[in-house]
Structures are given as C-alpha cells and as structure tokens.
Amino acid sequence: MVYAVRVVYRYVRRYFKFLLVGVMNAAVDLGVLNALLLAFPTRSPLVLMAYNTIGVMAAICNSYLWNRFWTFGDIATGSRREKMKFALQSLINLVLNDAILVGANDYLVTHRGLPYMLGSNIAKGGAMFASSSVSYVFMRMFVFKRRNVLHLETHRR
C-alpha cells in the first residue's frame, strides 16, 4: 500500500512539474509569437506559421532543458538516443501546433470575424493545449522512459 502511494505521489508530482514547465513554455511561445506579430504585422498564413515555428522552437529549447534536468531528471540520461527521440517528439509537436494554429486562425478570423490578433491568440491557445497534451504522452512513454533494471542487468552480462 505504501509503495502504491509513493508511485502515485511520484506520478502526480512529475505531472505538476511538467505543467509548470508547460506554463513557462507557453510564456516563451506566446511572447515570441506576439512580439513578432506586433513588430511585423501580417495576415499571411505562411508568415503566421513561420512566426509560430520560431516561437515553438524557442519553447522546445526551454522545454528540453527544464524537462531533461528537472521534470524527468531522475530518469533522463542525456544520451544521443534520448535526444533523437526528443527531436522527433518536437517535430510532431511543431507540425501539430502549426496545423492547428493556421486552421483555427483561418476559421476564427475569416468565418467568425474576430480581430486577427485575438483570433491568432485563441487559435494558439488551442494549438498549445493539443500539442502539449500529445507531447507529455510522448515524453513520458517514449523519450524519458525509465529503463527496466532487469533488462539492463541482462544486457550487462
């Protein structure tokens, strides 16, 4: 029973760390996107996607550092394989984020008549929610996966 409580506590604690890192990532991502939109206004979906890509890449760098050393610090190895898995997860995150942002922004601005900045930020919120949810599953189950100790012992012989 005590072991089960510890496992649940560890899982909940890790998830809340991930959420806190997500808030920091959101601040970086939204900050970069809005700074670019304010400095270089556009209505072009391609330029919006480029701005979003820059913001997401900045957030991904922030995410790797905080998740590697803090959220998943007890199980992360920093190996080349782990970094490649993180890069693959990041690419999926980026494509999903860009697709949702551009599609939702078009719908909100063109079909619902919202002002461009408002539509872009609402669309970005949906894109961030969807891509970060997928990202957590990938990071927990694929990138920073705890290796089975018995499996490691078998391969050391």
Automatic annotation (TrEMBL):
Compartmental location: Membrane
Does the entry feature the keyword RNA-binding, yes or no?
Answer: no
InterPro entries in UniProt: GtrA_CellWall_Glycosyl, GtrA_DPMS_TM
Tell me the domain of life: Bacteria
Q: Which residues form the GtrA/DPMS transmembrane domain?
A: 17-144
How does the protein associate with the membrane? Multi-pass membrane protein
The record's family statement is: Belongs to the GtrA family.
Protein name (database record): GtrA family protein
Q: Which organism is it from?
A: Alicyclobacillus sendaiensis PA2
